[in-house]
């Protein structure tokens, strides 16, 4: 005969964590005052801002060709927190053919052409992802160490996948 004594039930499981669908807040940048007309023999260096939602925005340097403002070299760190990041130059990058345009282009400074090897920087018109710097400007940017892998992130991932 079944027992008529009420049994204690386990409490319901906690609700799942809230999922945020709103993007990371935009960063307000006060751009420097840069003349719109180029000094003789100079190239414009810009800061590109990409929407990184739901994470922080991604930033890159942009140096455009003196002949076409939509073509240039995009200089940034590529990778992820699990494996680390490394320097990358996207040569002869053309904004007309990208599916991921920046949300903001911030002119930073006109820089003398002596700090660039424009033909090599643009890979003689042939698009290419490159990991070695060319010319003094890129060599200078390459000296800044990109973020390394995050061992703490790896540890957290291991806890979730075990």
UniProtKB/TrEMBL annotation:
InterPro entries in the cross-refs: DUF6540
Organism of this sequence: Penicillium alfredii
Protein name: Uncharacterized protein
One Pfam family it belongs to: DUF6540
Compositional bias ranges of the Basic and acidic residues kind: 146-155
Region: Disordered, residue numbers: 1-32, 142-162
Low complexity: compositionally biased ranges: 19-31
Biased segments, Pro residues type: 9-18
Superkingdom classification of source: Eukaryota
């Amino acid at each position: 005969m079944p027992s008529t004594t009420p049994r204690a039930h386990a409490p319901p499981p906690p609700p799942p964590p809230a999922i945020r669908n709103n993007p990371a807040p935009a960063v307000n940048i006060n751009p420097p005052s840069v003349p719109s007309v180029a000094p003789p023999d100079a190239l414009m260096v810009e800061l590109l801002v990409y929407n990184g939602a739901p994470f922080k925005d991604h930033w890159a340097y942009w140096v455009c060709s003196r002949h076409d403002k939509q073509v240039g070299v995009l200089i940034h760190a590529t990778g992820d927190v699990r494996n680390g990041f490394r320097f990358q130059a996207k040569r002869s990058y053309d904004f007309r053919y990208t599916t991921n345009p920046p949300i903001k282009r911030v002119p930073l400074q006109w820089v003398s052409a002596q700090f660039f090897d424009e033909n090599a920087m643009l890979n003689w018109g042939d698009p290419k992802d490159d990991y070695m710097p060319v010319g003094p400007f890129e060599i200078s940017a390459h000296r800044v160490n990109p973020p390394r892998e995050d061992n703490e992130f790896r540890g957290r991932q291991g806890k979730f996948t075990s």
